[in-house]
Automatic annotation (TrEMBL):
PANTHER family: OS02G0202900 PROTEIN, OS02G0504900 PROTEIN
The UniProt record lists the keyword Repeat: yes
Record Gene3D superfamilies: Kelch-type beta propeller (2.120.10.80)
SMART domains to which the protein is assigned, alphabetical: FBOX, Kelch
Organism listed in the record: Coffea arabica (Arabian coffee)
Keywords: Kelch repeat, Repeat
Name used for this protein in its record: F-box/kelch-repeat protein At1g67480-like
Gene (name only): LOC140021494
Top-level taxon of origin: Eukaryota
Domain F-box: 52-92
Length: 385
């Protein structure tokens, strides 16, 4: 195991080195003062830091604060490749350096489009979020995978008509940049998607010409490939998904086999590659989030209670939300430090963000939070890096 103190000191020196170099427009220098050679700067297979074993050098880089990652990524290809890898997140976790940032998609009161905001655990705004490539879409899926944000499919309005997309874009939260991933097999929107065991699943939704879909597919990030899997037994749309212990749960929305909204839960076993059903799901869900082994939902007809699903015994319980005033107040969820944030969609600036701590002693689960997005929250994700 590398020495933490000496590694941290070395990382601080390196941080100062490349930060000053970038500001001055000069190549970064090593501790000894000599410029890094072109071979090192350009070689993806070069040592991470000349003179140090790669595991020690990687540990040193992992100690640098998250705000410096984009600057680190332009030092050389070797550093950039490491920062983009799953190994980087693993080493950061080993060093106890993972930082949680909240990414919130908001729309302002004037309706001037949607914008991503980045907030740390103290409620401080972080780096500007670069514009996503491609045309603006709605009805897309959002998944976090290996410290990266995936924006999946959705539809764009073209000549007054909905045009479904199979595009998938990836936002690297460490390098603050976008890239294009492999297209899905089926263009879709208003579908369910979730990460399970390092794979991303997309189920149902609407396809071309607005037809409802029962098909499903899975994305392998190592192969950058989508593969069709067994379909649902009936089309389903407007639904959502979450993963628990190797299984994919699809809830809410509607299906062609029910009148109105569906209470059925479709469960996909990722090891056996088979679907089964449960009957005790939520309907007309307006907000959902997973904290630990529990799913939190708010239903459209009951905005004053949290519906909490325990994946271990498949049970539900209801918890009152401590708000007064109009019963039309709606919420969206966020997650930070294992706690659930309830962002009010009411424009009144007097409304505050509620915080629910599922691990707090009985009677003290509810608190308030200083974290408050500027604009109405459409969705949010938490990324640790």
């Amino acid at each position: 195991m590398p020495n933490f103190v000496s590694g941290k000191k070395r990382a601080t020196e390196l941080n100062m080195c490349f930060s000053n170099a970038l500001e001055q427009g000069t190549p970064p220098r090593s501790k000894g003062g000599s410029c890094l050679t072109p071979k090192f700067v350009d070689g993806i297979h070069s040592p991470v830091l000349p003179g140090l074993p790669d595991d020690v050098a990687m540990y040193c880089l992992a100690l640098v604060p998250r705000t410096n990652f984009p600057a680190m990524g332009v030092v050389c290809k070797r550093w950039r490749s490491f920062i983009q890898s799953k190994e980087f997140i693993r080493v950061r976790k080993l060093a106890g350096m993972l930082e949680e940032w909240l990414y919130v998609l908001t729309v302002d009161s004037q309706g001037n489009g949607s914008h991503w905001k980045v907030i740390d655990c103290l409620g401080q705004k972080q780096n500007e979020f670069p514009t996503m490539p491609g045309c603006e879409k709605v009805g897309f899926g959002v998944v976090v995978l290996n410290g990266k944000l995936l924006i999946i499919a959705g539809y764009a309005m073209i000549d007054g008509n909905r045009s479904p997309s199979a595009d998938v874009y990836q936002y690297d939260s460490c390098l603050n940049s976008w890239s294009k991933l492999a297209d899905m097999n089926v263009a879709r929107y208003d579908f369910a998607c979730a990460e399970v065991n390092g794979m991303v699943y997309a189920v149902g939704g609407y396809g071309m010409d607005g037809e409802s879909l029962s098909c499903a597919e899975v994305y392998d990030p190592d192969a950058d490939k989508w593969t069709v899997i067994e379909s649902l037994r009936r089309p389903r749309w407007g639904c959502f998904a979450c993963g628990f212990e190797g299984k994919l749960y699809v809830m809410g929305g509607r299906s062609s086999f029910t009148i109105g909204n569906s209470r059925f839960v479709d469960v996909y076993n990722t090891e056996r590659h088979t679907w089964c059903e449960m009957k005790n799901g939520c309907v007309m869900v307006t907000a959902h989030a997973v904290v630990g082994k529990k799913l939190f939902c708010i239903e459209w007809k009951n905005q004053r209670k949290l519906a909490i699903f325990d994946s271990e015994d498949h049970s539900w319980k209801m918890v009152p939300v401590p708000v007064t005033g109009s019963s039309s107040i709606r919420f969206q969820f966020g997650i930070l430090d294992g706690k659930l944030l309830l962002f009010s969609l009411q424009e009144d600036p007097g409304y505050i963000t509620l915080l629910y701590d599922p691990n707090a002693p009985p009677g003290s689960e509810w608190q308030t939070s200083v974290i408050k997005p500027s604009g109405s929250c459409m969705c949010s994700v938490t990324i640790k890096a």
